[in-house]
Every structure is written in structure tokens, then in C-alpha cells.
Amino acid sequence: MNPYGKGTDVAASAAGPTRIGLGCMALTGIYGAIDRDVAQATIHAALDLGIRVFDTAALYADGSNEELLGRTIGDRDDVFVVTKFGLAAGGNGTLVRDSTPAAMRASVDASLQRLRKERIDLLLQHRPDPRTDDAVVAGVAADLMREGKIAAFGLSGSAPERAEEFGRAIPVAAMQNELSLASPERQNEPAILDQAGAMFMAYAPLGRGLLTGRFRDLSVPGDLRERMPQFQDDAEKANLERLAVVDEIAAKHATSRAAVALAWTLNAGSNVVPIPGARSPKQITTAITAADLALTPDEMLRLSEGAQQMTS
Questions:
Q1: Quick check: 190 pLDDT over 80?
Q2: Which of the 8 DSSP states describes residue 154?
Q3: Cβ contact 300:253 at 8 Å
């Protein structure tokens, strides 16, 4: 069993009363260039509103994302920083998976330097590495915990069954997978991971902006979403249908689409910590309202049914 407690306890202690973190990937350019001052202001706005979980990775902007967090937050003891290893940019837009012991240790040491931290609060394997046995990865992670370089270990982009497999060698504190009304197929995973004592970190809980109507305006040069099929013009009708129930419930509660979408993700399990991305302080303010939005069981059901119909 996870020594950090059940997933509910991990989520509560890590994320605080908001139970919402900040996914920092968008702060260093993947959805278009962003001014460094704006990026830092966004992080400060998150802190001011009570957000304490900040998610990054060595992959994001080739380490620049971690450097941004290091400059802005440093080694504060009231902040929970999550970073990842095992995935790097290759040539021609490819990604290289490497979780060999040497690569894993080098990644952790570089992350610690960029984050300006003595210890990483939660280290995730970014994606499984088919060439490196999971037992080897678990062994290195356990060594890193004993050495004080990481406080906890978890997985990202993985089947929930891997948490149980890794758990035989090292506690798995969290798993990070995509979950939103735009991708509801993982809706059963938080309960599985809670049984394993793990927190479920839901990335892209706003469907990369799809659930806010962001598909209407992709005018920022370099926005990765320009190449995604769900953001193309021929998908707009389906997207609007998907948002119809969201809009109805948002109007009833006098709130935003983003708040409803995030509240649905929060309600997927008491061990769930959504990590929406943001590119401005205003987006943080909008997202945080989801923490206080109480959806009824009927509203949750209608949202889930609508999401399943759109993805079936």
C-alpha cells in the first residue's frame, strides 16, 4: 500500500482545498509564444488563488519550462512540483523514450538544477519505455528516493494496471492521464487508482481548450492544436453539439464552460487533481471557480452521457 496514504489523502495534502493544479506546459510555447513576464504572472496568480500543485516535464521546451518554475517558485516548501523523465524530442518532430538508469539519473539531476530544488516532490515516468524493464525503472526510482532526490514516484500515460505492477517494488503515489468531457474513456481509472492508493492527475481537463470554445480562435502562430483533427473547421458542428449540455448547465449555475468541465473532472473521484493549462492570470481565475461548483448527480450523468455519445 502507498505510504503516502490513499489517493484521497495524497490529493488533499498535495493540492490543498482547491484540489486543482496548474499544468505549466503552455507557459513555454506549445500553444504559441508567450511573454516570460506573462508566464510568471500566471504562476503567481495561481499561487495567490491557492493552487499548490505545478506540473512540468524535462521534455517541455527542452527544459525551459522547468527553468521557468525554478525562477518563479524556487524551493518553496508550500508548493508541490511534479516533473517527468523518460521522454525527449527527437528529429522531425518525433519523441524518444528512454528510461534507462543512466538517462533517468541524468534527467533527475538536470531537473533538480533547473527547478532550483533539493528534492523533486513527485517524479513521473513520462511514458513507458518498451526497451527498459519496469523493474529496472522501479529500482532506480527507489534508489533516488533513498538518496533524497525524489519524495514520491508515479506514472504518466499508462494503463492503471501498471500502478499495481510497480507497487510491488515501489509505492506509486500518482498516475497522470488525460481525462475530460472531450476524452471520457478513462472515467473509470480514478477508482482503480484510488484502490491502489494513488492520486489521479487529470491532464487536458478542458480538452486543450475544446470545452471552452477555444476551437473558434486558433490565431496564435505555432499553436500545436492547428494540426489536431478536433480543431479543424469540419469538426466545429460536433464540437458545438458537445458543448450544448455544458452551456445549459453553466447557464443554470451562472458560471463558465470551463468551470463546469473542470467540476465534472473533479467529481470523477475524490483522488482526482485536474491540472488545466493556462496562458494568462485570467484563465487561472476562471478555472479556480470549479472548486466551489457543486454539480448534481443528474447533471453529472447528463454530462457523462453526452460526452460518451460524442466519442462513441
A1: yes
A2: E
A3: no
- 155: pLDDT strictly greater than 70: yes
Q: What is the pTM of this model?
A: 0.90
Cα 80 to chain centroid distance, Å, stands at 13
Lowest mean pLDDT among 22-26, 90-94, 258-262: 90-94
d(Cα 300, Cα 130) in Å, to the nearest integer?
37
The SS3 call for residue 105 is: helix
Q: What are phi and psi of 71, to 5 degrees?
A: -65, -35
**Strand pairing category for 87-89 and 95-97:** antiparallel
- Which amino acid, residue 75? D
Instruction: Write 282-287 long-range contacts (CB < 8 A, 24+).
Output: 283/42, 283/258, 284/22, 284/42, 284/45, 284/46, 284/49, 284/51, 285/45, 285/49, 286/256, 286/258, 286/259, 287/20, 287/206, 287/258, 287/259, 287/262
What is the pLDDT averaged over residues 288-296?
88
Residue 62, Cβ neighbours under 10 Å: how many?
A: 12
- For 84, the enclosing helix (H) or strand (E) is strand 80-85
- Residues noted as catalytic: 60
What would the DSSP string read from start to end of 178-196?
E-BTTBGGGTTHHHHHHHT
295: three-class secondary structure by DSSP: coil
Res 268 pLDDT > 80: yes
Closest CA to 112 of 75, 61, 86: 75
Q: What is the arithmetic mean of pLDDT over 162-191? A: 93
What are the backbone angles phi and psi of residue 229, rounded to the nearest 5°?
Answer: -60, -35
Kindly state the average pLDDT of the residues 89-113. Answer: 94
Q: Which alpha helices (DSSP H) does the chain contain, by range?
A: 7-15, 36-48, 64-72, 101-115, 134-146, 161-167, 189-195, 236-253, 257-266, 281-288, 297-311
- CB-count burial class (<10 Å; 0-12, 13-18, 19+) for 9: middle
Measured CA distances, 55 to 32, 124, 140, 254 (Å): 19, 10, 22, 30
The residue type of 36 is R
Determine the pLDDT at residue 312.
46
Mean pLDDT computed over 176-205: 93
